[in-house]
Write a structure and sequence with these properties.
With about 240 residues, this protein is mainly β. The chain is about 10% helix and about 35% strand.
């Protein structure tokens, strides 16, 4: 074999060795897979099932704080009833989108057209403002005029029911069952023939209310007493 042929054979061997080494490296190289990026799953936003009377958010059907329905509201229509849960509670939504569950049985207020005794005559309760004067009893039992410290306007369901009371002297009142009387009973506790502010209760029935808000007031003077449709009652508000 001449020198030229030997060199060619040597080059072929070198090429074969290099190719084989490259194949070996590629086949045995350990490839480290990239670390996957985990995106946190956002907390579910409370939502209502469109075909159900039950509020749903994940596996929790009542994932909202339980609050009284009768809470003061700063804007008309806030909060708004958006679902009846058929168990005496309702789902409400504020204008900021927040939802909560409430119980209408906690309402302690008066109908919107209730007349309140004031030094300027009878005034409709829904028209009263803080600072206006109404009649109240002071701690000594004297009838005095005092400014209103608080006025509450609260939202109730569209199908809210309220007590209609008729007294033996002709006075009438539409009022929520939990509202306190002047002698620290509640309207719901009263029965036919019970005495209320010097008269007997002839009838007390639940009737449809037909308004979206109920109202209450708190006069200064320390007793919280005022006359609603000429019946002495006690405010559910506190100083």
């Amino acid at each position: 074999m001449n020198q030229k042929g030997f060199i060619n054979i040597l080059l072929i061997v070198i090429v074969v060795v290099l190719v084989g080494a490259g194949i070996y490296v590629v086949s045995t190289r350990q490839v480290t897979p990239p670390t996957p990026t985990i995106t946190p799953k956002p907390s579910p936003t409370p939502a209502l099932s469109p075909n159900s009377t039950t509020a749903t958010t994940g596996d929790d059907a009542y994932n909202w704080p339980i609050q009284n329905v009768c809470i003061p509201v700063s804007r008309p229509g806030d909060p708004v009833v958006i679902r009846d849960l058929r168990d005496g509670t309702y789902i409400y939504q504020r204008s900021d989108g927040n939802l909560f569950r409430g119980n209408q049985n906690h309402c302690k207020c008066l109908a919107a057209q209730t007349l309140i005794s004031t030094p300027d005559g009878q005034k409709i309760i829904k028209d009263l403002k803080e600072g206006m004067s109404v009649y109240t009893l002071d701690r000594k039992g004297n009838k005095i005029a005092a400014p209103l410290l608080k006025v509450a306007k609260v939202s109730v369901p569209a199908d809210y029911v309220i007590f209609h009371m008729l007294l033996s002297d002709g006075r009438e009142l539409l009022v929520s069952g939990a509202h306190p009387t002047a002698d620290n009973r509640t309207v719901e506790e009263l029965r036919d023939q019970d005495n209320l502010d010097g008269a007997r209760i002839l009838k007390k029935d639940l009737v449809p209310y037909g308004d979206l808000f109920t109202y209450d007031i708190l006069p200064a003077g320390g007793t919280g007493l005022y006359w609603a449709n000429d019946i002495l009652l006690k405010s559910m508000l506190t100083e």
